[in-house]
Specification:
- It is a single chain.
- By secondary structure, the chain is of the alpha/beta class.
- It has two domains: 152 residues, SPOUT methyltransferase, trefoil knot domain (Alpha/beta knot, 3-Layer(aba) Sandwich), CATH 3.40.1280; 67 residues, tRNA(m1g37)methyltransferase, domain 2 (Trp Operon Repressor, Chain A, Orthogonal Bundle).
- A five-stranded parallel sheet has the order 2-1-6-5-7, sandwiched between helices. It has a two-stranded antiparallel sheet with strand order 3-4.
- It is elongated.
- The structure holds adenine.
- The site of adenine has 11 residues, from strand 5.
- Keywords: Cytoplasm, Methyltransferase, S-adenosyl-L-methionine, Transferase, tRNA processing.
- It comes from Velocimicrobium porci.
- One of its GO terms (biological process) is tRNA N1-guanine methylation.
- Specifically methylates guanosine-37 in various tRNAs.
């Protein structure tokens, strides 16, 4: 997977991504990260990249040409036109299935905006996907780009030590994951649920599935309608 991030703050991307699991994935060359400084493509002698909005209003708008220059620098490094994700609160809300789909790509370009946005004309020219990470407004697209890259990276084979089991992860089949326990057996007077100590795999599986269902019902009732439950399980939650 090759990530290209078009940004005014390449250092923020590099420092964030070169840490922890994504950092190790970069070292192992399972993912490649190129942060491209949009300012390097300014055509202005003062390296300016923004200007006042036509029609008036607060704030500044990122100009089209430096963004386009940064994008063209990416095109020189790839064989076919890559998907270009613009991080914006006006995009479709990011979710696990979207991450799974993006993880299939060979190259992904993330375009990070700042100020009051980017000149619409360059967005029309290069952006293939408008994505938001939730209904709140951040100061720029860098953190959202890192949220997406983190989520996508852990789906790439070899990035996690124990390859994730798609079966048990949160959001698989629209259910949240069951609770986990580790040693000691008693902590702060609280005992690990008996069934987990039993070694009885079938019972453990049943208990975990029920926990997933109850937890989803309590914390994310909006998801449970989309989960495929057996008729026995449906009865269980009706009681
Ligand atoms: N830029 C600012 N806020 C954002 C959000 N919620 N998602 C994606 N990009 C953003």
């Amino acid at each position: 997977m090759n990530y290209y991030v078009l940004t005014l703050f390449p250092q923020m991307i590099e420092e964030g991504m070169n840490t922890s699991i994504t950092g190790r994935a970069i070292e192992k060359e399972l993912i490649h990260l190129t942060a491209i400084d949009i300012r390097d493509y300014s055509t202005n002698k003062h390296k300016k990249v923004d200007d006042y909005p036509y029609g008036g209003g607060a704030g500044m708008v990122m100009q089209a040409e430096p963004v386009y220059g940064a994008y063209k620098a990416v095109l020189e490094q790839v064989k076919k036109k890559p998907r270009v994700i613009y991080l914006t609160p006006q995009g479709a809300t990011f979710h696990q299935t979207m991450a799974e789909e993006f993880a299939q790509e060979e190259n992904l370009v993330f375009l990070c905006g700042h100020y009051e946005g980017i000149d619409e004309r360059v967005l029309e020219e290069i952006v293939t996907d408008h994505v938001s990470i939730g209904d709140y407004v951040l100061t720029g697209g860098e953190l959202p780009a890192m949220v997406m890259m983190d989520t996508i990276s852990r789906l790439i084979p070899g990035v996690l030590n124990n390859d994730i089991s798609a079966e048990t992860e949160s959001f698989h089949d629209n259910l949240l994951e069951y609770p986990q326990y580790s040693r000691p057996e008693i902590w702060n007077g609280k005992k690990v649920p008996e069934v987990l100590m039993s070694g009885h795999h079938k019972n453990i599986e049943t208990w975990r599935r029920e926990q997933s269902i109850f937890r989803t019902l309590e914390r994310r009732p909006d998801l449970i309608e989309k989960a495929s439950l057996t008729s026995k399980e449906k009865k269980l939650i009706q009681t």
